[in-house]
Amino acid sequence: MADVTRWEPFGRLTALRREMDRLFEHVLGREPSPLGEAAPAIEVAETPAAVIVKAQVPGVSKEHLQVNVTDTTLTLKGEVQEDQTTEDKTYHQREFHYRAFARTITLPTTVQAEQATAQLKDGVLEVTIPKREETKAKDVPIQT
Fold it and tell me: Is the pLDDT of residue 36 over 60?
C-alpha cells in the first residue's frame, strides 16, 4: 500500500521565510522581540477606584521617560541611551540595544488624567490613574 502524504501548497514558501528570518537574525546578531523593539511589554489592570498600567522599561532612567495621560489614553515615550564610548575601547561583542520607543494604550474606562501618578522601580514603570465617577443610572417614571 502506498504512503499518503499531506499536500501543503505553501510548505516550501513557509520554510523559505523561516530560513530568511534566521539569516537576518544571524546577520543582525540578535533575537527579535515578539512585540518589536519599539514596544515595551505592558500590563493593564483595573480596580474599583483606578486603572493601573505597568510597563517593562529596563535600562531607562526617569529623565528619559515621558508619560502623557488623557481621559481615555496613556502614551509612554522613552529612550535607552548608549553609554559614552571612549576611543581607547575595542568592543569584541555588543548586544545592548539602544533605541527610542513610544506606545499608546487605550484605557478601559475614562479616567482623571490630572490625578495620575507614576513610579519607576527596578525597570518597571507603574502608572496609577483614578477613574472618573461613573454616571449613575436613574429610574425614569413612566407616565400614562
Answer: no
